[in-house]
Amino acid sequence: MKVIATYNIKGGVGKTATAVNLAWLAAHEGAPSLVWDLDPQGAASYYFRIKPKIKGGGKRLVQGKRDLEKFIRGTDFDLLDLLPADFSYRNMDIFLEGTKKPSHQLYKLLKQFRNEYEYVFLDCPPSISLVSENIFDATTAILVPTIPTILSLRTYKQIQQFFKKHDLDTTKILPFFCMTDRRKKMHRSMVETPPDFLTNLMPTSIPYDSKVEQMGIHRAPLVEFAPNARAARCYEALWSDIKQHLSRLE
Amino acid sequence: MRIEFIVPVNQDIEQLKSSVQENFSAHLEPVRTVYRTHYDSFDWRLYKKNSLLEDTRDGNEHILVWKTLQGENYCPRMKLREIPQFAWDLPKGPFRDLLTMVLEMRELTPRVRVRSKIHVLRILNKDEKTVSRLIIQENNLQRQRGIRSGKIDNRATIVPVRGYAKPSMEVARFLEQQGLIPTQDDLMMTALTTIGASPGDYSTKLLLTLDPTMRADRTMKIILRRLFDIMLVNEDGTRTGTDTEFLHDFRVAIRRTRSALSQVKAVFPKQVLDRYKREFAWLGQITSPGRDLDVYLLNFDEYRDNLPAGMQAHIEPMRDFLIKQQGIEHKALIKAMNSQRYRRILLHWPAFLDEPVKERSTLKNARQPIINVARKRIWRIYRGILRNGGLITPGTPAEVLHDLRKDCKKLRYMMEFFRSLFAEEHIEQLTRMLKSLQTNLGNHQDYDVQIKSLNQIGSQMQAEGNATPETLLAMAMLIEGLQAKLQQTRSEFAIQFGTFAAKENRKLFRKLFANAQESQKILQ
Q: How far apart are CA A206 and CA A176, in angstroms?
């Protein structure tokens, strides 16, 4: 089982769209996949038409006192399941603090699925906190969608610094450019000559595409309802890059 | 868990769909036709592991699903452009690794094909989310070799969506009200039964229950007929030559036949015996080079992996050479199998076996109860092994061990032929002991032969200009490794033989095979 997080401190960079589309692609290829919507806003749950609600709240669930498996919901797509978000996840830091090894808790919870899913996608909330530390610990790879702008790159550096400061494995971080706009000179130049500190940069960028926003109308992954859209094709290429990268790690 | 129903023959599919749509919020997907094929190995390795492998071809895409016979919810699956011949040709991953562990070197054989017209109704909740799937299948058996096309059960399968159990239960209740019949049987198992296949029915074991009082000549004909049947079922696969185990099982049946002919003496007329001893020796001879090459190629990856990383690529020309030789030998085998001589064996040998034995016979053992003949013969071979094995010292030439190996094989075959005549737990215990000794002697022989063959192959490759100095060096390293293994096996022989010849086993052998009174007890 490979755990892939879509993570960024910044919001609105395409984390959920990435998690949802890549998970669909993985399942479509025949790999049983799970998306865990960790973001209290519950966008991934919404896309899959699943109520962002954990009966009884997320606290006991995150602390391992309730059976995680019971809350998994099948999506409309074969082999693709979702663990829905809950508004109480906004307090997840506090929930995690209440466990024995707070920074190891997510890993511990996910371990039970190692024979059931080939991929678990964690759609992460935009923050840097104990939740993030858990994510870094539990994952095989951390996908960082990065808009080719100065502020986004600055945020990326902050993530790198956090990793170094806490002695975490920086090779897990896989940045990729997203929402790129060829009409903008800065975007073009950054994609063409990416800065050196973007190590492990995935070769595929996801272009800005209004079709991505239509995921909210269709309530389905872009790759499913518009497989020929430019961004959909790029998600396919990105998924292929990621698989190649992961196979090299084996 | 999926819930499956048989749709009665008189139930109209369109009407069934309409009534589901009237009673549930359901979205009907476009109707499509898929082709489903059940795969297993020729010897049913998957079925024997309680599982079945089903391919669904939808357009150009195949989905290979590995199910348990109980139809559990989670089944490993894989999307493919085409179904490979062997499990090891599948894309890398746990699916391939596990399937290769089960199937090993056996090819995937399509056992039955079904064409299904698929109607999918997605049951939706108020958010228009799919909460259950109803899959109605109109099924037809597809024509394949020796099987006519025809109708088989139409099915309706409810596939629950995880976390939404209730809607599926409601649909199931509704279908039952409509007169559909719940079933636990997998469609592919039903299809197999329809075509008359019996999953798991292949075995190279004799599986005979012999009557100890039966005449020896009649019993031997029964045993030899069973061996001939094993040969026959493996004949086509041997001719095709892609799955090496057909030739292997074909050869084992030949070897066992030869052993039966030579070991159970004075039951058949000399003229018949001489003819078929000669003919089966010929069959052994024509199938031998092909099998040797198969074994080298099956072990090739192990050979390569035993070499240092830097040398591994240099051994590859040897693989090419072996594949080329394998092709040559296979052609020669086909030529022999197409010959008059082979056809005559196929015609005359079963005719002889099926012919009733003559009431009178001057042959010493022909009319003897089989238990007496079997007992005497096994006891004699066993004593020979004890005597010859006991004389082996670290300095004894390899040929002597080779002869001992052959004697052990004879003993093993005899014990297999006649196992139903003796107490199962005793024969089981002695076979286990014998097997350990055989493994030791077999390995010794294999290493010895491989060393000699590698030297020969090296010379041949060199003569043909196909061997670089690096390849020859890699082969020399292989030989060195095999020599070390040979020494190791040789040094373990004394312990293995000691266990086999232990007092406890000797007593049991004596009890089972030396005691004439025991035979008399059974005969009375």
A: 8
Q: Which residue of A has its CA nearest to B127?
A: A49
CATH label, B3-194, candidates 1.10.10.10, 3.40.50.2300, 2.40.320.10, 2.60.40.10 = 2.40.320.10
Pairing type for strands B51-58 and B61-68 reads: antiparallel
Q: Which of B38, B94, B353 is nearest to B227 (CA)?
A: B353
A71 in reach of chain B (CB within 8 A):
yes
Helix then strand then coil, in percent of chain A rounded to 5, is 45, 15, 40
CATH of B216-523, one of 1.10.443.10, 3.40.50.300, 1.40.20.10, 3.30.2350.10: 1.40.20.10
Q: What are B6's strand-pairing partners?
A: B155, B181
Residue A30 has its nearest CB partner, among B77, B122, B130, at: B77
Are residues A196 and A170 in contact, defined by beta-carbon separation less than 8 angstroms?
no
Residue A72 touches partner B, C-beta closer than 8 Å: yes
Q: How far is A80 from chain B (nearest CA, A)?
A: 10
Say whether A30 and B63 touch across the interface (CB within 8 A). yes
CA pair distance A32, A1, nearest whole angstrom: 10
Q: Could you tell me how many residues make up chain A?
A: 250
Q: How many CA atoms lie within 13 A of A194 on its CB side?
A: 22
Cβ neighbours of residue A243 under 8 Å, at least 6 residues apart? none
How many alpha carbons fall within 13 Å on the CB side of residue B501?
Answer: 17
pLDDT tens digits in sequence order for chain B, 524 residues long: 789 999 998 889 999 999 999 999 999 999 999 999 999 999 999 999 999 999 999 989 999 999 888 766 567 888 899 999 999 999 988 889 999 999 999 999 999 999 999 999 999 999 899 999 999 999 999 887 777 778 899 999 999 999 999 999 999 999 999 999 999 888 999 999 888 888 998 999 998 999 999 999 999 999 999 999 999 999 999 999 999 999 999 999 999 999 999 999 999 999 999 999 999 999 999 999 999 999 999 999 998 998 999 889 999 999 999 999 999 999 999 999 999 999 999 999 999 999 999 888 889 999 999 999 999 999 999 999 999 999 999 889 989 999 999 999 999 999 999 999 998 888 999 999 999 999 999 999 999 988 998 999 999 998 888 888 999 999 999 999 999 999 999 999 999 999 999 999 999 999 889 876 665 565 55
Instruction: Please tell me the distance in Å from B407's CA to the nearest CA on chain A.
Output: 48
In three state form, how does the secondary structure of B172-217 look? HHHHHHCCCEEECCCHHHHHHHHCCCCCCCCCCCCCCCCCCCCEHH
Token output for A239: 């998924």
**All domains of chain A in start order, with CATH:** 2-245 (3.40.50.300)
Question: Who among A51, A74, A116 is closest to B161 (CB)?
Answer: A74
Shortest CA distance from A83: residue in chain B? B163
Q: Report the candidate in B432, B104, B377 with the shortest Cα–Cα distance to residue B261.
A: B377
Chain B residues in contact with A247 (beta carbon < 8 A): 92
* CA–CA gap between residue B155 and residue A145 (Å, rounded): 46
Domain-by-domain residue ranges, chain B?
3-194, 216-523
Are the Cβ atoms of B127 and A116 closer than 8 angstroms? no
- Contacts for A52 with CB less than 8 Å, ≥ 6 apart: A37, A41, A42, A45, A46, A84, A85, A86, A87
Name residue B28's beta-bridge partners: B121
Contacting residues for B173 by C-beta, under 8 A, at least 6 apart: none
- The helix (H) or strand (E) run that includes residue A207 is strand A206-207
Pairing of strands A73-74, B109-124: unpaired
Residue B520, C-beta contacts closer than 8 angstroms, at least 6 positions apart? none
